[in-house]
Amino acid sequence: MTSRAPSVPSLDVLRQRAAGLWGALPADVAELADLFAGAGHELALVGGPVRDAFLGRSSADLDFATSALPDQTERLLKRWTRATWDMGREFGTIGGRRGSVVVEVTTYRADEYDGATRKPVVAFGSSLSGDLARRDFTVNAMAVRLPSLEFVDPFGGLEDLAGGLLRTPIDPEVSFGDDPLRMMRAARFASQLGFEIEPGTFAAMAAMADRLAIVSAERVRDELVKLMLGADVRAGLGALVDAGLAAHVLPELPALKLEVDEHHHHKDVYEHTLTVVEQAIDLETDASGPVPGPDLVLRLAALLHDIGKPPTRRLEPGGGVSFHHHEVVGAKMTAKRLKELRFDKDTIKAVQHLVFLHLRFHGYADARWSDSAVRRYVADAGAELERLHRLTRADVTTRNRRKADRLSFAYDDLEARIAELREQEEIDAIRPDLDGTQIMALLGIAPGREVGAAYKHLLELRMEHGPLGEERAEAELRAWWESRGA
Fold first, then answer.
1. Of 139, 164, 207, 412, whose CB neighbour count within 10 A is largest?
2. Cα separations (Å) of 195 from 6, 152, 254?
3. How many CB atoms sit inside 10 A of residue 271's CB?
4. Are 277 and 302 in contact (CB under 8 A)?
5. Same domain, residue pair 272 and 206
6. What is the pLDDT of residues 458-470, one digit of tens each?
7. Is residue 7 part of a domain?
8. What are the TM regions of this chain, as residue ranges (predicted)?
9. Model confidence at 316, in pLDDT bands (50, 70, 90)?
10. Are residues 184 and 285 in the same domain?
């Protein structure tokens, strides 16, 4: 598959671009550099901002490395701006803002790790080259000294950037042993940048995948989110699975590699899932649309929609394969996995809901629904209706053109039905024709379970018949109340 990530200019073009990029740094940065130089300290722009500048991307936040110690950095930053912060002081980082320019300045680092956790024992370094050696990949181990604008690239990061290659500055076993999260970052950058992972680096990831067990769930989640919001999500997910990292992060994904039966009664669920993710991304809208991309909830729902298939797989008489109720099982599995990864409650609820509903449409193509069924579909989807539209469409990956067209036309018809009903009545937040206060007044009852039962009865009538009008609703309510012997 062709990468969806932006193409990278050639090495010669990147080299020619360098001088102009550094000369275009904000005047505020030049002033900051002069302050550090005047105090006898080194200062260099490092990491992602340097890489992104070569790729033609602007960066609002600028990262710097310095020979100054944190207390010295803080004093200098306070001469540059009143808006400073020191939440990262433990790791040598002091931040500041001046207008739209946000900077974080970190003392040269030479971290040491205790081997049991990924938390570094902070040790300050003495040189820029030593600081760059401890970074994750060569494309992030480039720097520009300020104010001289000298480009520093001790590990060939620019060449790797031009070649679209991810490689560690030092031996990958040492780098990943120091910080196993870097293996997740490799998969994330494969998604964000569309880069290939260098064979030796990939082999180290595969050999050391179990080291991810010492990384906190929150840090793993953050890397997974960045991967899922990237431009080439399929490449990132493929790296996770192929290197064995997914087995420790998202084991439900490699579990989708079910053995395809000899008669091919079911498709490759893993490849189907990756295709559904891609197709869902293609259906995201721009900022003015109902599902602006990149949309994390839609992408996670596409990724997890079929994880209930492996535990529900059954071989049927005659050689067929079934996955009965896999959406129900999958919804429970989705909630469990996302909770373990420390996702927030709103995201968990939305993704779980979409997984549970992703099969609801099937059957419409065989028997056109009543208005009542359409109302229930909209009501059950609730706030996730627009995402459900896209997930359902993305879930069609059949190569049978006739079947694909039939499903597409059926969903077109369903969306048209929803639009028609919207013109005739309120269906996005369906409520009974009488509210709780009216119910209590009409029946002469106090708040309690009877009010809830009456409300539910009227809601069912509203779903089945559409708006009743207040007069008919009152008659229906009285009849229902009398039928209960009240």
1. 139
2. 10, 22, 22
3. 14
4. yes
5. no
6. 988 888 888 888 9
7. yes
8. none
9. confident
10. no
CATH of the domain at 190: 1.10.110.30
Tell me how far apart the alpha carbons of residues 130 and 108 are, in angstroms, rounded to a whole number.
Answer: 8
Helix H or strand E segment including 64: strand 61-66
**Residues 38, 150 within the same domain:** yes
Residues 16 and 149 in one domain: yes
Residue 259 falls inside a structural domain: no
Phi, psi of 39 (to 5 degrees): -90, 5
The per-residue pLDDT for 56 is: 78
Q: What is the CATH number of the domain that holds 11?
A: 3.30.460.10
| Residues 170 and 158 placed together within one structural domain of the fold | no
Q: What is the model's pLDDT at position 367?
A: 75
57 compared with 82, residue with greater pLDDT? 82
Q: How many folded domains does the chain comprise?
A: 4
Six-digit token pair at 412? 């077109």
On the question of pLDDT at 28 being above 70, the answer is yes
Which two structure tokens, joined as six digits, stand for 196? 């290939």
Task: Specify whether 16 is located in the same domain as 38.
Answer: yes
β-bridge partners, 112: 121
Tokens for 43, please give them.
């200062």
Is the same domain home to 358 and 475?
no
Q: Give whole-number Cα distances, 430 to 258, 422, 457, in Å.
A: 41, 11, 13
Distance of alpha carbon 200 from alpha carbon 398, whole angstroms = 37
Whether residues 289 and 405 share a domain: the answer is yes
- The phi, psi pair for 175, rounded to 5°, reads -60, -50
Closest CA relative to residue 47, chosen from 121, 148, 153? 153
Domain span at residue 339?
Answer: 268-424
C-beta separation of 143 from 106 below 8 A: no
| Residue 125 pLDDT level (bands cut at 50, 70, 90) | confident
